[in-house]
Specification:
Length: about 300
């Protein structure tokens, strides 16, 4: 299977979760001045399957302006001083409702927008954009199973949405020993393509083991489902139910270490700029919106 090395994150990342462990449910609150436009109708609930059992999901069914549930999601804040989340990104992440809220039609909308004096950036200047990065560290996680999200991605030069996972031992092991699974990354300068990539000791940053999925048309035109299936010593990537990438310890480069037999937590974010996508320009549609219909975790029967 052909492997490529796109230039995803050197460590654009955060902290620790659990393994198919769910804490008590709770709701988020808050409202913004204006809700984003309603999205198309959500996909139907998952059909029963003999292979998979749904163990956790966030369907984002809440009133317009409601923020992500505190029982499920934490926020990363800022620009990661001196690094821009390890990638010289231009956004300042906030917990403001205008950057992450429900649209009232079953969607979580993460919005990146132009902002003045949003907060300090890595280049010792104020960041030019705000956005949101949320994660399930310490609240919801998985060791094995199927993890997927249905999303509609924004387009444009310099736009970088992602759906990914980090090992819960990040705070103690550090990156890349903690492991990183990029379930889906998209950059505006390759409008027909998303990427699935693995990072670990000996194959991180620009040496991550990745593969593109070419839609043959603009990714941002419609909703798609992005999935990993994680089994002992195997990770499989899917788009809309189709396998396109698979890795096992035997497929790592010489000297690489497999660090994925442990719990991981989930992250959703919308970055602006960075070493891989490049800077936004006059053609970049802003504000940019990443619409998430649902995130689901299944166990294999």
């Amino acid at each position: 299977m052909k492997q490529i090395t796109p230039t995803p994150s050197p460590w654009r990342h955060v902290l620790p979760a659990i393994a198919f462990v769910l804490t008590a449910c709770g709701g988020g609150g808050g409202s913004a001045t204006a809700a984003p436009a309603a999205a198309p109708a959500p996909a139907p609930a998952p059909a029963p399957s003999n292979s998979w059992t749904l163990v956790w999901s966030d369907e984002f069914d809440a009133a317009a302006g409601t923020v992500p549930k505190a029982a499920n999601w934490n926020y990363d804040i800022g620009n990661a001083e001196n690094s821009g989340w390890g990638n010289h990104e231009f956004q300042y992440y906030t917990s403001n409702a205008r950057n992450a809220q429900m649209d009232g039609s079953g969607m979580l909308v993460i919005t990146a927008e132009k902002a003045s004096n949003a907060g300090p950036c890595w280049n010792a200047k104020p960041c030019d954009y705000t956005s949101a990065r949320i994660h399930t560290n310490g609240k919801v996680g998985f060791t094995y199973g199927k993890v997927e999200a249905r999303m509609k991605l924004p387009s444009g030069q310099g736009i970088w949405p992602a759906f990914w996972a980090l090992g819960t031992d990040l705070a103690t092991a550090g990156w890349p020993k903690s492991g990183e699974i990029d379930i889906m990354e998209f950059i505006g300068k390759t409008p027909n393509t998303t990427y699935g990539t693995l990072h670990g000791p000996g194959y991180s940053g620009a040496q991550g083991i990745g593969k593109p999925y070419d839609f043959g048309k603009p990714v941002a035109d419609d909703f798609h489902t992005y999935t990993i299936i994680k089994r002992p010593n195997e990770i499989v990537w899917q788009v809309d139910g189709v396998d396109y990438h698979r890795l096992t310890p035997a497929l790592l480069p010489a000297g690489g270490t497999w660090v994925f037999e442990k719990p991981f937590f989930v992250i959703l974010n919308l970055a602006v700029g960075g070493d891989w996508p490049g800077a936004p320009d006059a053609t970049t549609p802003l504000p940019a919106q990443m619409k998430v219909d649902w995130v689901r975790i299944y166990k294999e029967n």
